[in-house]
Amino acid sequence: MTANEIIRNLNLLPHPEGGYYKETYRSAETHRKPGGDERNISTAIYFLLENGDKSHFHRIKSDEMWFFHQGEPLEIVSIQNGGLVSVTLGNDLARGEVPQAMVPANTWFGSRVKSGKGYALVSCTVSPGFDFNDFQMADREELIMEFSGLVAIISEFTI
What we know:
This protein is mostly beta strands. Helix content is 13%, strand content 46%. Pfam families: Cupin_5.
């Protein structure tokens, strides 16, 4: 299948961070974080990036698990402990790809099709569940001020 066929068949919509998504699960059970709002226990989405598209640097207030389904390997880049961390989702374990990865809560991260060609279809689960009130897109200038050694990657993954 092509990326456009997958987008159409799964009814994916444009995502504010880049790429396409569709929520596939939102638990009925909820949880109230200490001092926070009530959130569903867990949520899940399909997420697709194609060619040179990126999921731009953003962060959320919950851990996020990523699961590879098909297509080209997907690189997840994040800023952790002041440095850059890169994980490649895919099925070629011999090349260091992994079928799942976790991004810790409150971590700046983005993703891209590693080769810049083709598409990657993944799923993401968030616990406590995703809510757009917990979503923050990165501001390029603020991120560069905080992580001055990562100017190139911050410039690439911010709008």
